[in-house]
Amino acid sequence: MRWAVFPVLLLLAACGSEGWYVVDPTLPAGRSNLWFMISGFWYTILLSATALAMAVPGALLIALCGLSSNRWLQRIYRAYVELIRAIPLLVLILWVYYGLPDLDIRIALFWSGVVALAIGESAFLAEVFRGGIQSVPRGQIEAAKAISLGYTDTMRYVILPQAIRRILPALGNQFIYVVKMSALVSIIGAPELTRKANELIVTEYRALEIYSVLALEYLVLVLVLSAGVRWLERRMGADERKA
Amino acid sequence: MQPIIHVKGLDKRFGEFQALKDVSLDVSAGEKIVVCGPSGSGKSTLIRCINRLESHDAGEIIVDGVTLADQTANQVRREVGMVFQQFNLFPHLTVLRNLTLGPMRARGLSADKAEARAMEYLTRVKIPEQAKKLPTQLSGGQQQRVAIARALCMEPKIMLFDEPTSALDPEMIAEVLDVMAELADSGMTMIVVTHEMGFAKRVADRMVFMDKGEIVETAPPEQFFSAPLTERCQTFLNQILGH
Predict the structure, then answer these.
(1) Based on CB atoms within 10 Å of each CB, which residue in A123, A222, B42, B104 is the most buried?
(2) Any B CB within 8 A of A239 CB
(3) Is B164's Cβ below 8 Å from some Cβ in A?
(4) Which residues of B touch A144 (CB under 8 A)?
(5) B132: nearest Cα among B100, B104, B155
(6) What is the 8-class DSSP label of residue B155?
(7) What pLDDT, in 10s, does the model give residues B183-227?
(8) pLDDT digits (tens, 9 = 90+) for B25-66
(9) What dihedral do alpha carbons B206, B209, B165, B69 form, nearest 10°?
């Protein structure tokens, strides 16, 4: 039902505007503009997916450091999380792309976006993982130890499957957050959805219509992602009832 | 004969609280020890030290010729099975998988061999038909029997029981105690923390009474129940047998 709100808003907006021709799929110019905007999809998807593919395992490792009994690892964890969480993602992107070259570290446009998104995200994900792992009752670790499982096996077969099931809704939030925040990478010129929209506005001067389509594009991405997470929840929840 | 478990001068502190004070206990192979005492007396802490779920602060523990330390914990745990008050089954895994995980990961058994062994022990605890179910689909008594089978699948030389019937509804206690009594008859070395005095009289070779972190009295059951030496032990027995 929530879906319906958006098209209605668009329609309302449309009433007040004459400019819908710029994205009217029945007109050749509108069609080519739409294609231009849609062509940003793959970049946004690839950018977000690569960033997440790096951030998820990275955050898990960071969380395991935070849960270690080694006080130095715990301190490093705390410092990392507090530092990274405090930096606005936009600042992180600018820092990686414009700042690092001063240290002779030059990262290509795409990878700058990926690295900034992944690092910014890893701190939040690490906290989610830490919370999830800590929520698994101590008895589970003891039972695993009692059958002489080592640390890796205990994590892999006993703790993480239970932790991940618990944190899936929170993970879903973070995944969506990354997709939306990838819009910020437009600032350094990455040709993703938002950048494409901005480029079109420079020539067409129709901000309301073009940004409305842009918002719709993100809506589609997020809804697909959210459906995927719910599918995962069902799949993992189906074989474990609430204990 | 060399004792299979040798505990000497054991001290354990939790912060300010001294959980164990100069505890010494030798257990020979095949012996059945029942440990009882008021709550907070250190019974659970003692058996948790024997498979290194707790580390001790002073004294020594030698299990099957191996001196317990962080480095040898896993080696000792392979020979020592443990059954917990709260069962601590892995809720996301089927009964069968709960049983095969340890043998496959810690003992390096093939899946076929591990499953055959699991079914053998499930039959011994009289619930082979529950193999494909999840722990939460079983009754408390069945879950605890699965937990016993899970420990036995590691083919330990020693079994530790930490109040195995305390979390059970009264009508399920007997089925678990029966399984334990059969195990005792098979010659297993057992240390059982329990308040089930009927079971103790039937199975124990020696009773150990603990209070305030110390072993106060050790005696064969006939003597222990008829003529306890210390007043503390007498008071305790009156309290739990008196109703």
Answers:
(1) B42
(2) yes
(3) no
(4) 90
(5) B100
(6) -
(7) 999 999 999 999 999 999 999 999 999 999 999 999 999 999 998
(8) 999 999 999 999 999 899 999 999 999 999 999 999 999 999
(9) -90
Q: How many CA atoms lie within 13 A of A145 on its CB side?
A: 17
CA distance B152 to chain A (A): 10
Residue B7's DSSP bridge partners are B25, B61
Q: What pLDDT digit, counting tens, does each position of B99-147 carry?
A: 999 999 999 999 999 999 999 999 999 999 999 999 999 999 999 999 9
| CA A50/CA A224 separation, integer angstroms | 17
Distance of alpha carbon A243 from its chain centroid, rounded? Answer: 31
For A50, A105, A120, the CA distances from A90, given in Å and listed in that order, are: 18, 19, 10
Please report, for residues A10, A105, A211, A230, the alpha-carbon distance to residue A223 in angstroms, rounded to integers and kept in the order given.
Answer: 18, 37, 18, 10
- Give the tokens for residue A116: 């900034």
Predicted pLDDT at A7: 65
Residues 6+ apart with CB under 8 A from B3: B26, B27, B28
B156 has a chain A CB within 8 A of its CB: no
B71/A contact by beta carbon, under 8 A: no
Collect all residues with Cβ–Cβ distance below 8 Å to A61 and sequence separation of at least 6. none
Q: Smallest Cβ distance to A148: which of B78, B86, B93? A: B78
H helix runs in chain B, sequence order: 43-50, 73-77, 95-106, 111-124, 140-152, 170-185, 197-203, 221-226, 231-241
Q: Which of A146, A158, A161 sits opposite B51 (nearest CB)?
A: A146
Amino acid at B45: T
Q: How many C-beta atoms lie closer than 10 Å to residue A75's C-beta?
A: 12
The pLDDT confidence band at residue A242, using thresholds 50, 70 and 90, is very low
Q: Which two tokens stand for residue B119?
A: 């079914």
